[in-house]
Amino acid sequence: MIHRNPFLYDCVQQYERIRSLADRAVAQVDDAQFFQDLGEDANSIATIVKHICGNMRSRWTDFLTTDGEKASRRRDEEFIILEADTRDRIMDDWEAGWTLVLDTLGSLTDDQLDSTILIRGEAHTVREAVLRQLNHYAYHVGQIVLIAKVASGHAWQTLSIPRGKSDDYTEAMRRGSERRA
After folding, report:
1. DSSP string spanning 108-168?
2. Is residue 1, in this structure, part of any structural domain at all?
3. Nearest alpha carbon to residue 7 among 136, 111, 98
4. Which domain holds residue 47?
5. Which pick of 127, 144, 151, 162 has the fewest CB atoms within 10 Å?
6. Smallest Cα–Cα separation from 52: which of 165, 141, 166?
7. 11-70 confidence digits (pLDDT tens)
8. How many angstroms from the chain centroid is the CA of residue 119?
9. Which residues contact residue 139 at a Cβ distance below 8 angstroms, ignoring those fewer than 6 apart?
């Protein structure tokens, strides 16, 4: 959905970018790497994704009308991988979470941006809450990318400009913009 409000439009673009980074990183790991813990008190990709999903359900369900930290949320359980937590199930929750986020953002109006909502009893404007969540997800997506990169080793396919190719990239962008002008 293309939002008419410039702030919301930009936020949707950023949410979609960080989701794409996570999706492309996760696609590069097998199931063993997806669930691999890096050590005591370190999270696997699966655990981070499960946590983000729990956060999304809590924050974005009834976004304007209830506290973003729902009484039903069991945050500590998001960091425990259960037997029922298959990769497919976790990724289905991931898909549902992103749908909830983007649908909620798409439903917001200009008049609601300065409305006050609560997260853990703390007042935020809608604008602040949207940015808070964007920051939170970007933080965790960075973790996912790093873990996937380490797990993939030499098989890793970069998600951005490859090392040593910055000049080539910049030149290609320049040529592309000249053709459009």
Report:
1. --GGGTT-EEEETTEEEEHHHHHHHHHHHHHHHHHHHHHHHHHHHGGG---SSSPTT-HHH
2. no
3. 111
4. 6-180
5. 162
6. 141
7. 999 999 999 999 999 999 999 999 998 888 899 999 999 999 999 999 999 999 999 999
8. 18
9. none
